[in-house]
Design brief:
Elements (H helix, E strand, L loop, with lengths): L29 E17 L2 E2 L2 H15 L8 E7 L2 E7 L8 E15 L5 H14 L4 E8 L3 H7 L3 E8 L1
Antiparallel strand pairs: 1-2, 1-4, 1-5, 3-4, 5-7, 6-7
């Protein structure tokens, strides 16, 4: 019996906002950073829900573009250090005038999670278990929200990468 060939799935086209996310380079990986540069800023939150993230990203994006500082891997880490605010770190290729440029050094384990943002506490617990299973200790957790909620809806997936700085 002859089968009818099926059309190849349409490729996901970028939304003009967040690029589609490839999990392979990020899932269960280890990164060693030596003075990796980031623009650091502070956002306001209410119960960990960001209130000023978009405005801060736009503001810092303009400074980054003006400085000619590339964003090498589209990496933005969030340090959820308070239910009233968080620090954001946007990776850059060089110092950015009029922005707070900081460097990070250390060893980081990563793991990709998929689902609604409300699972973040569950993912943090799973991440700590994953790191502990490798006989390592979590020093600090950072969150990489790979797409905004609108783009996640378009792409049909909401990926979040947890970065565990390890000792």
């Amino acid at each position: 019996m002859e089968q009818t060939p099926q059309a190849a799935p349409e490729p996901i086209t970028p939304t003009g906002c967040c690029p589609p996310f490839d999990t392979a380079p990020w899932d269960e990986k280890e990164f060693v950073w030596n003075n990796k540069l980031f623009v650091k800023d502070r956002i306001l939150s209410f119960n960990h829900m960001p209130l000023t993230l978009n405005g801060k990203v736009r503001k810092n994006g303009k400074l980054i573009i003006k400085a000619g500082a590339d964003i090498p891997e589209y990496l933005m880490l969030i340090d959820e250090n308070s239910k009233w605010g968080a620090d954001i770190y946007i990776e850059v290729s060089k110092e950015v005038p009029r922005a707070r440029t900081v460097s990070m050094s250390g060893t980081f384990q990563t793991k990709v999670f998929e689902g609604p943002y409300k699972n973040i506490a569950i993912w943090a617990k799973e991440m700590k278990q994953y790191v502990n299973s490798q006989t390592k200790v979590v020093k600090k957790l950072y969150y990489f929200y790979t797409t905004c909620p609108n783009c996640a809806k378009v792409y049909g997936k909401n990926y979040v990468v947890l970065f565990a700085e390890i000792q």
